[in-house]
């Protein structure tokens, strides 16, 4: 080509091959299940971890010209993964970029975007990958649901200018749908997964899952799809299921008909954390290797607080249900990923992911080490990228966070973050803290949703 131009600036580009950095002296929680190791060095070449080992051993064979960073007294964990984000419902590029910036400067190096307007998400993923903007890597899904779902206002927000249900990133599925073509269209958006959402029966969920897997895509499903039950979704082979409170519909006393007409949940039935129908479901999940994207803390968030005592009581009941079912899943050995499905306000210094991790420790019986594994290796597994992310090991991407305080003593110490390394690129937390806050955005008209890139899913 003649007159080739370089394109937009990439001030946050990944490190280049041959640029070797050594991070020495830290206590490393590597995410593999091994105990934390003091006095550990991480050797990074470009975007990749070259070696991990004892400081003295690494020091004997340092590559020539390596830049050495002393992390004595510091703690290192793998880059965190938020397994449930929405950054373009409705599309709002400045707000989405602000969320992505805060995430990466908080140690989050990858997210799962669980269906949005993929016209924008795809470009945000590209921009964060090449370094036009600061942000985590974005793995995203194209959505499939029954036709009845597409009167939901969110489907119009993410299909502006087109017909909801008739776009490649958000398709209405019927008995007449050519699933080979539907999955190919979804794959053409560069999505890595199909999200199975609502108003689909068990046979259709199984057929979508089989075809998606045949074409090399993952399947991320709501834990109940209505009328498809949690057990039917697990048996269909979904790789990850979302929203722990939806597990309560396993063995429901009333038929599951549609997403819109869910039967009531008897919260008292699950209070002891030993419901036999859920126990059987969790056994299936463990047998199949199904990851649970619990989104356990969202009912305790301001995003779902509602207005008045009735809304508050409902949110509290669902928060308790989430805690009880997540604890039961954890005891059963189900792998739990740390998704949020909401975001803290733009004035907050840290993302909602930190609240999810705290909830899992405080209310679900998980230790800080178990929660950190969920937020790293299991999060990467939920996104289908554990071969390159989720742990600090030779051959994987150089994604990790440096902390001043020990997160194994208190998971809240993630807020002591000093540095994120993402694909070998350094993101100093002080650069984020010293930045001017985002410009205030006008309040929405009465009755409209609060502004922002993220609308919490209707998951009850």
Gross morphology is globular
Number of strands: 18
Q: What is the correct CATH architecture of the largest domain?
A: Alpha-Beta Barrel
CATH topology of the largest domain: TIM Barrel
Largest sheet at a glance?
10 strands, mixed
Question: Residue ranges: pLDDT <50 for 5 or more in a row?
Answer: 439-455
Could you name the CATH homologous superfamily of the largest domain?
Metal-dependent hydrolases
Determine the oligomeric state from the structure: single chain
Spatial extent as radius of gyration = 22 Å
Task: For the record, give the distance between the C-alpha atoms at the N and C termini, rounded to a whole number.
Answer: 54 Å
Helix content: 25-40%
Mean pLDDT: 94
Domain tally: 2
Q: Given this structure, which CATH class of the largest domain is correct?
A: Alpha Beta
User: Approximately how much beta-strand content do the residues carry?
Assistant: 15-25%
**Count of DSSP-assigned helices:** 13
Structural class: alpha/beta
